[in-house]
Design goal:
Helix content is 7%, strand content 55%. The chain has 2 helices and 26 strands. The longest helix is centred in the C-terminal third of the chain and has 13 residues. The chain starts with 8 loop residues before the first strand and ends in a 17-residue tail after the last strand.
């Protein structure tokens, strides 16, 4: 002890970590470590910075290499790793990040491709647990949070500074339940009516969707680039999403200009489809509602083109060619 008081003052201790000796400098009150503790290498560089409360390591802990770069950071509670920890290489590049509970790592966080600020949480067994938005420091959940169970989305929540503020949606086997900001249930059921340009999480990313009914439910996903491959990949997730308990048709839509759109179609119960009249009208209607096209738009599909027009009273008119495709012969007992 610098002061000569064995129970109070600034203390300098010798500690061993992985068979290496370091000097710890920390305040002591009534014989217990309190406040900021610094572990120093023999060459005088900082090895680790930590906090002590009542002799236990508590709060943020940072480990640095000999060049002063952070190589590990996280939080400790009652002397055990808790919450998110991040490991870096000597040049500051992230190696991994994971979540700890009671001193044990139980999941790994991976940055969601194409989703800045979002991370997917995967268990040590490889199961998806959640996808969540994090704060600017990438340490605390802050924003939208999607919880999974057995590979299926169970609830959507909102977090602020690491604290869950509310549940906005939940899914059961058959129903989607929505709550307002006060936690009151405002909807229970499947897709009904229109959903305009809403950001929704499917499969591995957020997509802006517009849902319209043409007598059947349709989910139109606006994209800069579309393809059969994308429709085949995303279609099953949209069709069977818990947002739509009764399932739904999907159209990927690319707006070429105010008079032309291209679409790829994935129909519920049928899969990838080369052309569809209701699908063409649904995609054109969605683009029209968003103000992306005029009152007359040509819809280009793998199976051909259709012209869709909008009347002032919101009626939709579809025009297309009559083309010979082929002929079949049916046995007489087919009609029996």
């Amino acid at each position: 002890m610098k002061s000569g008081d064995e129970l109070n003052g600034e203390a300098i201790m010798r500690v061993l970590v992985h068979n290496k000796e370091y000097e710890m400098r920390v305040s002591v009150k009534k014989g217990k470590k309190e406040g900021i503790g610094l572990m120093i290498r023999k060459n005088g560089t900082l090895f680790m910075r930590m906090m002590f409360v009542n002799d236990e390591c508590e709060g943020e802990t940072v480990k640095k290499n000999e060049y002063g770069n952070i190589v590990l950071r996280g939080r400790v509670s009652k002397g055990k790793k808790e919450g998110m920890w991040i490991k870096y290489d000597d040049y500051g590049n992230e190696i991994w990040r994971g979540l700890y509970r009671n001193g044990k790592r139980y999941s790994i966080l991976k940055e969601q491709e194409g989703m800045k600020g979002f991370y997917s949480e995967v268990s040590m067994k490889g199961e998806l647990l959640s996808v969540s938005e994090y704060d600017d420091y990438e340490l605390l959940r802050d924003g939208r949070y999607f919880e999974y169970e057995d590979g299926k989305m169970k609830r959507e929540c909102e977090y602020k500074n690491g604290v869950m503020m509310r549940v906005s949606r939940e899914w059961t086997e058959e129903l989607m339940i929505e709550y307002d900001v006060n936690g009151m249930r405002v909807y229970e059921g499947g897709f009904e009516g229109d959903m305009i340009n809403e950001s929704v999480f499917f499969c591995d990313n957020f997509y802006n969707i517009t849902c319209v009914s043409m007598g059947n439910p349709n989910c139109v996903v606006m994209m800069e680039e579309i393809s059969r491959k994308k429709a085949l990949h995303l279609g099953p997730y949209v069709e069977n999403s818990k947002y739509f308990p009764n399932r739904i048709n999907m159209q990927l839509c690319h707006v070429v200009d105010r008079e032309n759109i291209q679409i790829e179609i994935y129909e519920r119960g049928a899969g990838y489809t080369y052309a569809s009249g209701t699908g063409a009208c649904a995609a054109a209607s969605a683009a029209h509602k968003l103000g992306l096209v005029g009152n007359c738009v040509k819809v280009h599909m793998q199976g051909g083109d259709l012209l869709v027009e909008f009347a002032e009273d919101d009626r939709v008119f579809m025009t297309g060619p009559v083309v010979y495709i082929g002929s079949i012969t049916l046995a007489e007992n087919f009609f029996a």
